[in-house]
Amino acid sequence: MDPAAATLEIRDAADAAEAISLARSRNASFAIVGAGSKKRLGRHAPQPRELSTKALSGVSLYEPEELVLSARAGTPLREIEELLDAHRQQLAFEPMDHARLFGGATRSATIGGVIAVNASGPRRIKAGAARDHLLGFQCVNGRGEIVKSGGRVMKNVTGYDLSKLVCGSYGTLALLTEVTLKVLPKPETQETLLLHGLDEAQGLAQLRRASGMPHEASSFAVVPAGVTPLSPEGAVAAIRIEGPQISVAMRRDALIAQLKDCGASFDVLDQEKSAGLWAEVRDAAPVVARSGQIWRLSVAPSDGFKVVEALRGAGTPILAHLFDWAGGLIWLCLEPALNAHAETVRSAVDAYGGHAMLMRASEDTRARVEVFHPQPGPLAALTKRVKESFDPAHVLERGRMRAEF
Questions:
Q1: Which of 171, 265, 283, 329 could form a disulfide with 100 if both were Cys (CB 3.0 to 4.6 A apart)?
Q2: DSSP state letter for 116
Q3: Is 274 helix (H, G, I), strand (E, B) or coil?
């Protein structure tokens, strides 16, 4: 490892500890890079040097019968998914492919990057987020210390769940070197029940209704009119059902019987078409394919439509949008503006206790606008204390999440 190189290739945790310790002594900072698919996520705060995990690759443990897998941080996500698929298993949190957001090579992410941003897809509403599947990890914090947390079982007896802090910290607390994940059996099949003839509010209401029924649907989305070929003229509500083939058919029929009073017409997508639809929803493909600034909003499912209506009422130039998680997750594509319409978007979200992240915008805009939702005073103070505990010299991803660190 050449300490003077612009990009340092990390081969193991000791390499990372050495590089970070040296940078700390020189008041220097690093960006952390795996495949580079998420480099444009976060504030525009370019670093003079990079720590690359590309050489830190490979599955170090996989026990299918125990539903556990460990992999080094630079392991390609595609490699892990192919290994799991060969054993009819999966990462149930189905991480989003951020490359589609920025026009990069699809499925090029590394597992370290997936965990660092807590990438979670449509099944989150049932299976949980990426952080809920993280059993343990090894990392190097901003002090240059090698830290291990958790293990191969879900119980954490330390009393302090570091996984919840590191997962979703965008590399600002520590450089992940290895992760251990819970994996789950892959369903035998899946179908998607489509509800046509409802407007967005009606469709979302039926999704919330269906989510409370005992039919174990795994995903709920509304695709607005004109966004995909599935919705050329009107909004379409989609409900995914997974499991053994006989069970899927029975639960689908039961859902239709209980929802038939809503006035919708029904259609069913088979396994192949269903998988294709949810890959599009996972990556917000109908929205991110548009040219514009992309926002990701998180609110209570019952408030999703209200937030979009508030934005429409404020004259926000919405080019495309999509509801996932039964309305709890909203993807927006807006006409570009220097301020990314941030005040309007966040005012609408704040009214319902949610948060909004600017996912795609120019470097200039991401340097001016708070990309992550502003935190109230007490939470901001806690965030600062956590950062100071892990990385007091701000060596890692300086300025990526908050301008002050």
A1: 283
A2: H
A3: helix
Q: Is 239 helix (H, G, I), strand (E, B) or coil?
A: strand
Beta-strand relationship, 7-9 and 50-52: parallel
Strand partners, 275: none
Give the DSSP letter of residue 188.
Answer: S
Q: What is the largest CA-CA distance in the chain?
A: 68
Domain count for the chain: 3
Residues linked to residue 240 through DSSP beta bridges, in sequence order = 192, 219
> What integer pLDDT is reported at residue 158 of this predicted model?
44
At how many degrees (to 10) do helices 200-211 and 304-313 cross? Answer: 160
Of 263, 248, 138, nearest to 202 by C-alpha is 263
Domain check: are 95 and 206 in the same one? no
Same domain? 40 vs 182: yes
Q: Of 111, 113, 122, 267, nearest to 192 (Cα)?
A: 267
d(CA 356, CA 365): 15
Report how far residue 107's alpha carbon sits from residue 96's, in angstroms, rounded to the nearest whole number.
9
* Residues 182-204 pLDDT 10s: 999 999 999 999 999 999 999 99
Find the CATH number of the domain harbouring 67: 3.30.465.10
pLDDT higher than threshold 50 for residue 154: no
Residue 16, judged by CB atoms within 10 A of its CB (0-12, 13-18, 19+), counts as buried
Judge if 46 and 78 occupy the same domain: yes
Domain that holds residue 92: 1-186+375-405
CATH number at residue 235: 3.30.70.260
Rounded distance between C-alpha atoms, residue 350 and residue 344, angstroms: 10
The encoded tokens of residue 398 equal 């300086």
Two tokens, residue 193: 């029940």
Pick the range with the lowest mean pLDDT from 118-127, 218-227, 369-378, 381-390: 218-227
Cα 399–chain centre separation: 20
Last-in-domain residue among 236, 266, 282: 282
Within this chain, do residues 316 and 298 fall inside the same structural domain, yes or no? yes
